[in-house]
Amino acid sequence: RKGASPAHFDMALVIENQEEFEGGLGLAGLLVAQARAVFQFPQQFGVGNHVLVYVEWLTHLHEPDP
User: Fold this and answer.
1) What φ, ψ does residue 43 adopt, rounded to 5°?
2) Cα dist from 30 to 8, 41, 42, 50, 64, whole Å
């Protein structure tokens, strides 16, 4: 068994609105998500062999602080 280790969460920028993202500047059309857990369901659940990510969505991005 593996020993305890400090929590590590990865952040991701996710395109919410393709048109805003392609036509905008900076962070337009993007959301920020934090990956909280990466997991798979056991085979007996019969939902496939896909890797899943539990995501925490953060507040919408606005203009950066000065």
Assistant:
1) -60, -30
2) 22, 29, 33, 25, 13
Whole-structure pTM value: 0.59
What is the full per-residue pLDDT of the chain (66 aa) written as tens digits? 777 777 777 889 999 999 989 987 788 888 899 988 888 988 888 888 889 989 999 887 666 666
Report residue 32 CA to chain centroid gap.
7
CB-based burial, 25-50: b 16+ in 10 Å, e otherwise: eebebbbebeeeeeeeeeeeeeeeee
